[in-house]
Amino acid sequence: MLAALREAVRDAWSLLMPVECAGCQRHDLSLCKECAECLIAAPTIHATPRGLRTYAAVRYEGRVRRVILAFKNQHRTDQARPLSQALLPALRRACEEAVGAGATEPLPKIVIVPTSKRAFRARGYHPVSLVLRAAGIRHARVLRVAKETSSQKLLGIQQRATNVDGAFVATRWLGASRVIIVDDVLTTGATIDEAARAVSAAGGTVIAAVTIGFTPRTGAARDIASGEGYGKEKGAQ
Ligand SMILES: [Zn+2]
């Protein structure tokens, strides 16, 4: 309730404040045409260290990176809608390929990677939850943070996996649900693997993961089908 109120006040405030493009700081536009175009791309497919198929919308660099960081860290909740437009094709493709065209089974549950209470309090919203809401997609909050972890930023691949080990726990039994995990950015995939472990521990079957961005820098998450080379820097803006 308090979070919703805070969000409403923040949204109202952002309407009064002069705007600038979240991707390039150009004035009088919340997102310019060039930056908006950077958010539209064919989804690429990757694999986490434990081999979970992960569909990512756009490369996390340049304008895209700035938009996501502004959305997450500078209360630019106005970017939820454009980011939802980036996420949707990846989510759609994951659903189609995991479920199969024309399948009559119930659609998979969408489960988001949780953030810590501290992060939620500081921000007032859950970024991925907001993006899914902007896309009109129902999702389940079935995971919560079980232990605080250190920042993943400066850690190597193995250290990241160890750091997040046991980080999440499911708040209820998932029965035979099939689950697609959604997160903001795919880096090494360790966080998504940990979320998948927690879902499996509660009886769920994780069939795929979907992220808005994927970082081309770490060389950890393997690329399956996109032709995108990890560890290669391309056209950083
Ligand atoms: Zn821009």
Briefly summarize what is shown.
This protein is α/β, with parallel strands linked by helices and 237 residues long. Helices cover 37% and strands 18% of the residues.
Q: Care to describe what's here?
A:
The protein has 237 residues and is of the alpha/beta class. The chain has a single domain (35-234), classed as 3-Layer(aba) Sandwich (Rossmann fold). Helices cover 37% and strands 18% of the residues. The protein is built from 8 helices and 8 strands; from the N terminus they run H-H-E-E-H-H-E-H-H-E-H-E-E-H-E-E. The protein has a 6-stranded mixed sheet with strand order 3-6-7-2-1-8, with helices on both faces. Helix 8 (190-201) links the parallel strand 6 (178-186) and strand 7. Helix 4 crosses helix 6 and helix 7 (157-164) runs parallel beside helix 8 (190-201). Bound molecules: zinc ion (ZN). Residues 21, 23-24, 26, 32, 34-35 line the site of zinc ion (ZN). Zinc ion is lined by residues 21, 23-24, 26, 32, 34-35.
